[in-house]
Write a structure and sequence with these properties.
Low-confidence stretches: 1-6
Strand order of the largest sheet: 1-11-10-9-8-7-6-4-5
CATH topology of the largest domain: Fructose-1,6-Bisphosphatase, Chain A, domain 1
Helix content: 25-40%
Number of domains: 2
Largest sheet: 9 strands, mixed
Radius of gyration: 19 Å
CATH class of the largest domain: Alpha Beta
Distance between the termini: 60 Å
Bound molecules: 2,5-anhydro-1,6-di-O-phosphono-D-mannitol, magnesium ion
Structural class: alpha+beta
Length: 341
């Protein structure tokens, strides 16, 4: 029997519960705008297959000696885990060789990788976000964004990937949690699919997810509060005032998992800049911008604290930025707190 109930009941938020069993492949094919080539749908289906492979390996990690360090350091100066490397290899393999993807920007690759100079899309991704959680069996995820090249006549260059999030044509994540879920948007709402491990298919769970009107959570690493600038202190004070909407604090340390919970139940995730590190930790191109794109498609927002994350054009593929994504009202309040003298 399938593990995914064809009628999962009402979603915890705005959005529609799937009434029929619909595979992601079928959903993508049925959602294509008239006249489109179907290449983007096939590209998203390739990413879904990468997600299945990574999920399968993640589930077996403790059994197959895949936990632990790979012995290499990535361009961020962070030690790579074996699963980081595996996930990156899977994404590269699935995105190469079929004429859809011209170049790939990955957190785990120091330089963008050109795979097909004439292809129409560029994919940016963090193959395994939250990888410090791998060894402790805590949720991790793959984050991705897709840009359509404006000019395919020459070899891919910086102009193809140093682009603001508002240019994204699709973005999403695969969350390896208690179940594996793929959440994506291609500009027409946010849709969530659960992997049925028995049949090996991502099946539609909810379409048109929206942040609920009443937020439930804020997700900040409060242990870093002494390093934050003064405005963050004002925001945290406001969050804890008795006349502020009652919120719980939840912080997983996997941005993708924190974002997902807040998408379902309402709230904001943030990784602020710090006095000695004003640019923060998270990367604009393959962490901040895709999550901000999803947030805006679900009625929320993304901000770096002063401006919309989707408006920032990176000058480096691995550029870092403060990231705040989620509920619009909470982000507006945060921006006010950061702008006060
Ligand atoms: P990673 O891409 O190397 O996994 O780092 C990003 C992760 C985010 O998922 C998470 O929000 C953050 O790092 C947690 O960092 P910290 O432990 O400093 O709170
Ligand atoms: Mg990562």
């Amino acid at each position: 029997m399938s593990m995914v109930d064809p009628d999962p009941g009402p979603p915890p938020v705005g959005g529609r519960a799937a009434q029929h069993i619909v595979t992601i492949e079928r959903f993508l094919a049925d959602s294509q705008p008239p006249g489109s080539t179907g290449e983007l749908s096939r590209l998203l289906d390739d990413i879904a297959l990468a997600g299945k492979l990574i999920a399968s390996r993640t589930r077996r990690a403790g059994l197959t000696e895949l936990l632990g360090k790979a012995g290499a350091v990535n361009v961020q100066g962070e030690e790579q885990n074996l699963l980081d490397v595996y996930a990156d290899d899977v994404m590269t393999a699935l995105l190469s060789g079929h004429g859809r993807v011209a170049a790939i920007v990955s957190e785990e690759q120091s330089e963008p990788v050109v795979v097909d100079p004439t292809a129409p899309y560029v994919v940016v991704h963090d193959p395994l976000d939250g990888s410090s959680n791998i060894d402790s069996n805590v949720s991790i995820g793959t984050i991705f964004g897709v840009y359509r090249r404006e000019d395919t006549s020459g070899a891919p260059s910086e102009a193809d990937w140093l682009r603001p999030g508002r240019d994204l044509v699709a973005a999403g994540y695969v969350l390896y949690g208690t179940s594996t879920m793929l959440v994506y948007s291609a500009g027409f709402g946010v849709h969530a699919f659960t992997l049925d491990p028995e049949v090996g298919e991502f099946l539609l769970t909810w379409s048109d997810l929206r942040f609920p009107d009443e937020p439930a959570y804020y997700s900040l690493n409060l242990a870093s509060a002494p390093q934050w600038e003064a405005g963050m202190g004002r925001f945290v004070d406001w969050l804890n005032r008795p006349d502020t909407p009652e919120l719980s604090q939840r912080y997983i340390g996997s941005a993708v998992a924190d974002f997902h919970r807040n998408l379902l139940h309402g709230g904001v995730f943030g990784y602020p800049g710090e006095v000695d590190r004003p640019e923060g930790k998270l990367r604009l191109l393959y962490e901040g911008a895709p999550l901000a794109y999803l947030a805006s498609q679900a009625g929320g927002r993304g901000s770096d604290g002063t401006q919309d994350l989707l408006e920032i054009r990176p000058t480096d593929p691995h550029q870092r930025t403060p990231v705040f994504v989620g509920d619009r009202f909470l982000i507006a309040r945060l921006e006010e707190c950061l702008s006060e003298e």
